[in-house]
Amino acid sequence: MAVWYIRKLTTKFDLNIQPLHPDNCGGLKPLGDLCFYNVFTLIPATIWIAIWSLLWSKYWIYYGQENIPNYAAIGLVIFLIGIIFSFFYPLYVIHKSMIKKKVAHMKAVDEITNKINTTLKSITKNVKNLDKDKGDKFLTDIKYLKDIYNETEKFPVWPIDIKIKIKFASSIIIPTIIAISQLISILFGQIKI
After folding, report:
1. 41 φ, ψ (degrees, to nearest 5)
2. Distances from the Cα of 193 to the Cαs of 84, 90, 117, 187, in angstroms?
3. Where in the chain are the domains?
4. 174 close to 47: Cβ distance less than 8 angstroms
5. Bigger pLDDT: 75 or 86?
6. Can you tell me the distance from the alpha carbon of 54 to that of 51, in angstroms, rounded to the nearest whole number?
7. Residue 181 and residue 65: Cα distance in Å, rounded?
8. How many CB atoms lie within 10 A of CB 15?
9. Would you call 2 exposed, middle or buried from its count of C-beta atoms within 10 A (0-12, 13-18, 19+)?
């Protein structure tokens, strides 16, 4: 429900995206953090299911219940897909808005580039009559444009901090590895008693 309402919140309201906000998330880091913490509450259950299915798979096979490890592994994979979906689903609308904002800024930078290209053409036509002050101003304008372009290129397009991404990825990796290894061993019949 929280995921659904976060998604609804982002579609009902016009978010104030601030590309140069110090949180490096366009000022929307609290929304990204909320999505992460909602999903993070499910991670212990995922790890528990992964460990339980890994430890008990030989037991179930020994007692003739070969399908239970299969169901546990498939359930774990579905659960992991659900966790990943519930993390990115509400953030995707914000992501699209942030991309639009970045593209709008990049178009403005392109307009400045066109002005500088026009100036460059006029300077190269009259290279013999080049004035030092005009040349210095032109070089200053180019440096200014490059600085603006570099800053614009750094604009974030996801409302989540890289630290949150690392925490999310690391909490998903262990159960994913267990589920994949269990599925591979089940599919290839390598589970021995």
Report:
1. -70, -20
2. 34, 44, 73, 16
3. 2-187
4. yes
5. 86
6. 5
7. 19
8. 18
9. middle
Q: Provide the whole-model pTM.
A: 0.62
Angle between helices 67-125 and 162-187 (to 10 degrees): 140
- Could you tell me the CA-to-CA distances from 127 to 114, 122, 130 in Å, in that order? 20, 9, 5
Residue 51's contacts (CB-CB under 8 Å, 6 or more residues apart) are 178
120 pLDDT more than 70: yes
**In the numeric block, which tokens belong to residue 64?**
């003739």
Residue-level pLDDT at 67:
62
Query: Phi and psi for 161 in degrees, rounded to 5?
Result: -80, 150
The confidence score (pLDDT) of residue 193 equals 43
- Identify the H or E element spanning 182: helix 162-187
Tell me which residue has tokens 């994949």. 180
The stretch 168-188 carries a mean pLDDT of 69
Dihedral angle sign, alpha carbons of residues 145, 146, 147, 148:
positive
Report the SS3 class of residue 16. Answer: coil
- The pLDDT of residue 90 is 83
Give the span between the Cα atoms of 104 and 108, in whole angstroms: 7
How far CA 43 is from CA of 46, 77, 128, in Å, comes to 5, 13, 69
Answer yes or no: are the C-beta atoms of 43 and 171 closer than 8 Å. yes
Tokens standing for residue 187: 């599919």
